[in-house]
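Person: I keep going back and forth on a fold encoding question. Show me how you would write down a chain together with its backbone fold. Please set it down just below, with no commentary around it:
Helper:
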Amino acid sequence: MAYTPDFKQLLQAGATFTTGWGGEGVIEPVELDKTVLPTGRVVGCDPLVDPESLPYLVTVEPGAYPLIAWVAVLSKDGKETDRRVAALELRIGDAPAVAWEMAVANPDLNVEELDSDGYFGYPVDAGCGTLADEAALRPLGEWDYDRTEEVLIDEADWEGPVPGLASAVTDPTTGANVVLVGSGWGDGSYPTFIGRDADGAVVRFVTDFLVPPA
């Protein structure tokens, strides 16, 4: 069975975990700007490096949906030492997720072939990640570096409650936007999971940035 996070810890306000250096982490949710999905084709990617990434095979109804950063507040000896985004959640519906599946963007990828700690994730090379509509990311691929730097890189807030937070409307016609956050410990590869309710409807997309120890 492939890797699956402990969602009761990852998506639970006040959940705690022990770090590898004797400290403690506490999970804190922060609601961000709503994500506008004009096509319903959701992409998980590092938007500064791979804005032309393929969307996940599972689609949703177009609309504007809540986006929540689940931040791990790290401390040692009672003093906050760091903040890292542990997960990014795109909330499609209010019903609780009772079943989870790994999101894939390529039909040739077979989750059943993964070992117990294996996963398919998107690569990060600029220390950030997003869950956004394909139509919001496509314009980024056409921007030059100066525009990307001015609109997103320079605006990223690394000192606030959500490390690396930046937001921009990239398609004024539809209102499609990109909200990016710092990706856990930085560069790497990170899996996204789809949560379904008791009726099988999609209610969540969640990228796990692998912050709490497995």
